[in-house]
Amino acid sequence: MPKGLFITFEGADGCGKTTQIKLLDEYLRSKGYKTLLTREPGAKGLGERVREILLNYDGEVSPRCESFLFLADRAQHADCIIKPAVKNGMIVLCDRHTDSTIAYQGYGRGVNIAELKALNEMAVNGLKPDLTLVFDIDVETSMERVGTEKDRMESSGIEFFERVRLGYLEIAKQEPERVKVIDATRSVEEIHNKVLELLKNVIG
Ligand code: TMP
Questions:
Q1: From CA 161, how far away is CA 173, in angstroms rounded?
Q2: Closest CA to 114 of 174, 178, 73, 176
Q3: Residue 28 contacts residue 91 (beta carbons within 8 Å)
Q4: Which pLDDT band holds residue 3 (cuts at 50, 70, 90)?
Q5: In the chain, how many domains are there?
C-alpha cells in the first residue's frame, strides 16, 4: 500500500487556496493517486453542523468559545476522517487545520498562543501535516475577492486580517521545514505549478 500523506492548505479568507486545493486534487487523481479532499471546519457529518454555528451564528461568540468550537471540529475530523484515510494510504488534502487556529484565534483574536498550541495537540492527538502551504496575499486584495457578502469570520475587519496574515508568516518562520509560503498574487497557473514543485519534496 502507498504511504499516506497529510497536506494542509492555509491562508486568510480570499487567498485562493480553495481553487488550488481542487486543482491539486484533480492533478493527483489524474496521476492515479487516491485522494481525500476535506476541510475545517465542516467536513462531512458533525463538522457541517459546527461550521454552520461558527460561520453563521449571529449572537455574541467569545474568542475562547470560538476557539473550542474549531478545536472540537478538529478532534472529530482528525479521529474519524483524516487518520483513517492516511492509514489507508490516501493523500489527504485539507483546507485549513491547526495553523488557522493559531493565526485567527491566536494572532487575530488575541487568545493565548501557547494555550492554543497545547489544545491543538490535544485535538489532533499525534496527527501532523507532512506539508503545509500558506497562500500569502495582501489584505486589500483578499478582502476584494471575498466581496460584500461576508460570513461571521469574514466580517472581522481589516486590522484583524492584517494580524492573521502576520500570524501565518510567523508560523512559517518558526517551522520552515513543514510550512511553505506561496505568493498568492500570482496567476492561478503559476501558483499551481509552485504547489506541484513543493509537493515533489514530500511525495517522493
Ligand atoms: P473557509 O471559508 O476558508 O472554509 O474558512 C472558514 C473560516 O473559519 C475562515 O474565516 C477561517 C476560520 N477559521 C478559524 O478562525 N479558525 C480555525 O481554526 C479554522 C479551521 C477556521
A1: 18
A2: 174
A3: yes
A4: confident
A5: 1
Decide: residue 201, CB within 10 A, 0-12 exposed, 13-18 middle, 19+ buried.
Answer: exposed
CB-based contact 156:103 (threshold 8 Å): no
Q: Quick one: what percent of the chain has pLDDT higher than 90?
A: 93
Taking CA atoms only, the protein residue closest to ligand 1 atom 21 is: 100
167: cell is 500570524
Phi, psi torsion values for 181, nearest 5 degrees: -95, 135
| Residues 91, 103 contacting (CB under 8 angstroms) | no
Q: Which domain holds residue 156?
A: 5-203
Taking the centre of ligand 1 as the mean of its atom positions, its distance from the CA of residue 40, in whole angstroms, is: 7
Query: How far is residue 92 CA from its own chain's centroid?
Result: 12
What CATH number is attached to the domain comprising 132?
3.40.50.300
Least confident of 33-37, 43-47, 72-76: 43-47
Pocket of ligand 1 (CB under 6 A): 13, 39-41, 70, 95-96, 100-101, 104-105, 153-154
Q: Give me ligand 1 centre to Cα 2, in Å.
A: 31
Question: pTM of the full predicted structure?
Answer: 0.97
List, in order, residues 6 or more apart from 177 with CB less than 8 Å away.
none
